[in-house]
Amino acid sequence: MLKRFLLTGLLLAAMTSTAWAQRTITFASDCTWPPMEMISEDRECVGFGPDLVNAMAKAGEFEAVIQNTAWDGIFAGLASGRYNAISSSVSITEERKNAMDFSDPYFEVKQGVVVRDGSDIKTEADLAGKTLGAQIGTTGYFAAMRIAGNNAKSYDEVGLAITDLANGRLDAVIADDAVAADYALTNENFSKNLNLAFLIEPDEPEYLGFAVKKGDTETLELINNALAAVKASGEYDQIFKKWFGGE
Amino acid sequence: MAEKQVVIDVGDGAALPRRHDRGLFSAWWISLIGALGIIAYLCISRPDPYWRVLKFLPDGIVVTFQVTILSILLALVLGLFTGLGRISKNRVINLIASTYVEVVRGIPLLVQLFYIYFALGQVFANLPDSNALFIFLKNMPPLVAAVIAMGICYGAYMGEVFRAGIQSIDHGQTEAARSLGFNRAQTMFYVILPQAWRTILPPVGNEFIALLKDSSLVSILAVSDILRRGREFASVTFNYFETYTMVALVYLVITLLLSKIVSTMEERLNYYERR
């Protein structure tokens, strides 16, 4: 028994020894943001983000570990060094740039407004005085606060906000357009009575980036080089097509 | 003719231990002055995050108080009926009360909150607008859901406290009251409960404080209590350390004040020591 145990250990060591030279980058991701990142029925984190990270790991020759982390506190974990980077559809904002460093942008987002079918909300002006929901600490929530002030409600997960909207306790939910479209148009529970009303036109384009701890240039360089390689090889377009159709 | 006076010497009563937490150097005062002092020091020395966090919290404090007080009232009512039900000789009542305690005690409060707000919300959303109750259930504000969930949860715990308190009163009291012609209800409300209250109050006070702290769980329902206000502040500013330090201190001050109220009530009811 002991012999077999040792042999297995040796075999494992031999298999992984090649990888030891490689750098391991741990990415934190809040897998409640379909279709960017979500938990599959096999309990794995799947979606556009994880696919991109895995492709980058292959191209950049590092090992990527994706760690499912609650959104609330995801930035605190990065600051305290619990993981090396965040791959969780983090929008690059000026405020966040003060607290962390960002990779090159990998995705452009707009904020989408989800409403119930038959709602009379058609434009941003219609949102005045309405009760809006969004996930805490997301750019969608910041937009909701800007529009609705104290009528903006923050939820731990965007799914809970969507549930409250479907149950009739909110007038609209604001989230990244890909996520909003996923809930409103393709989700089997919600697409029946929810609708993507419109996209909020931003003052300047909003991009997603990978966040790293402030001053961690080594990780940032690895990520940026890998991202450039994935984009150049055309793999990025394949992943995009896989999750968002053939646009 | 002067009436003959009968003096009954009741002695010193039961020997209760003296309280040692009197004066300024009690643990309570040290905690309170310490917490307030730290809050004041932080706000003055680094007003940028600390004072800004504190200014962000007041409406959260109001909501926390609302949730706590309403839940306590609901829990007290439920607890009293459950406690009485648990010692009832009526099989059906006893069984209902016992089942309630067993079921509710076995489900975490957080799960109950999710269940009552999100799971039942989905059921309520499909109700027709046929009567006022249905319309209310459909539009149940999160605060109401939070109070119902916390009241139901703590009602079960309170029920056990009430039961234990009532059972701690010597059976001779019941016999004496019944032989004086009191019926069951009169015995309970005029003889047993007034005495049991003294035994019940300390654990009930503990439940109050536990409930106030657990009210931070309702922030999961997007109720903007102290914790959610703090999280909203931290999510924008990334000042996690400063925010949660302040949130912790604010909760501490509030629970300290509540514990003082409870211990004052205890002393008032403590006839023997008061002399």
SSE inventory with pairings:
The complex is a heterodimer of chains A (247) and B (275).
Chain A: H1 2-20, E1 24-29, E2 32-33, E3 37-39, E4 45-46, H2 48-60, E5 63-68, H3 74-79, E6 85-91, H4 94-99, E7 100-102, E8 107-109, E9 111-116, E10 132-135, H5 139-148, E11 152-155, H6 158-166, E12 172-176, H7 177-186, E13 194-200, E14 206-213, H8 217-232, H9 235-244
Parallel strand pairs in A: 1-5, 1-6, 10-11, 10-12
Antiparallel strand pairs in A: 2-3, 3-4, 6-14, 7-14, 8-14, 9-12, 9-13
Chain B: H1 27-45, H2 47-56, H3 58-86, H4 91-105, H5 109-125, H6 132-138, H7 142-167, H8 171-179, H9 184-214, H10 226-237, H11 240-269, H12 271-274
Helix pairs in contact in B: 1-2, 1-11, 2-11, 3-4, 3-7, 3-10, 4-7, 5-7, 7-9, 8-9, 9-11, 10-11
3D structure, described in words:
The complex is a heterodimer of chains A (247) and B (275). By secondary structure, chain A is of the alpha/beta class. Chain A has helices at 2-20, 48-60, 74-79, 94-99, 139-148, 158-166, 177-186, 217-232, 235-244, and strands spanning 24-29, 32-33, 37-39, 45-46, 63-68, 85-91, 100-102, 107-109, 111-116, 132-135, 152-155, 172-176, 194-200, 206-213. By secondary structure, chain B is mainly α. Chain B is 76% helix and 0% strand. Chain B contains 12 helices and no strands. Chain B has helices at residues 27-45, 47-56, 58-86, 91-105, 109-125, 132-138, 142-167, 171-179, 184-214, 226-237, 240-269, 271-274. In chain B, α1 packs antiparallel against α11. The longest helix of chain B has 31 residues, at 184-214. The two termini of chain B are 33 Å apart. The relative contact order of chain B is 0.15. The model of chain B has no long low-confidence stretch (mean pLDDT 87). Classes of the chains: A alpha/beta (247), B mainly alpha (275). The A-B interface holds A 72-73, 75-76, 79, 95-96, 98-99, 133, 136-137, 141-142, 153-156, 160-161, 163-164, 166-169 and B 118, 121-122, 124-125, 138-142, 220, 222, 224, 228, 231-232, 234-238, 240.
